[in-house]
Amino acid sequence: MAKNSEGSGPRRFGGMSVSSRTIGIVVVAILVVWFILMNTASVTMHLWGLSTVSSPLWLVLAVVLAAGTVFGWLVRRNRDRR
């Protein structure tokens, strides 16, 4: 039976147990929010030739992030059912 090394497993911060995965998710989330907030210019989008919409880029990025998160959650939920 192999022993766990000190570096593996959850770390303890202020009495809370935090895994490496949680730390990675928090770091990526902070970078994503920072990237969205740094892009404040207005952009024009052509929606399949049907209409043209002008919107702040941060809003477009936030909507795409939300849609990607929901899509990823649905795909993972469907995969876990099998």
Account of the 3D structure:
- With 82 residues, the chain is α+β, with helices and mostly antiparallel strands.
- Helices cover 54% and strands 22% of the residues.
- The strands form 2 sheets. Strands 1-2 form a two-stranded antiparallel sheet.
- Strand 1 and strand 2 form a beta hairpin.
- It is flat and about 50 Å long.
Condensed summary:
The protein is built from two helices and four strands; from the N terminus they run E-E-H-E-E-H. The chain is of the alpha+beta class.
Give the distance, in angstroms, between the N- and C-terminal Cα atoms: 31 Å
The run of helices and strands is EEHEEH
Strand content: 15-25%
Low confidence ranges: none
Which radius of gyration do the C-alpha atoms yield? 20 Å
Q: Which of globular, elongated, flat, extended, rod-shaped describes the shape?
A: flat
Mean model confidence by pLDDT: 84
Instruction: Please tally the helical runs, counting DSSP H or I stretches of 4 or more residues.
Output: 2
Please write out the topology.
Elements: E1 11-13, E2 16-18, H1 20-38, E3 42-47, E4 51-56, H2 57-81
Antiparallel strand pairs: 1-2, 3-4
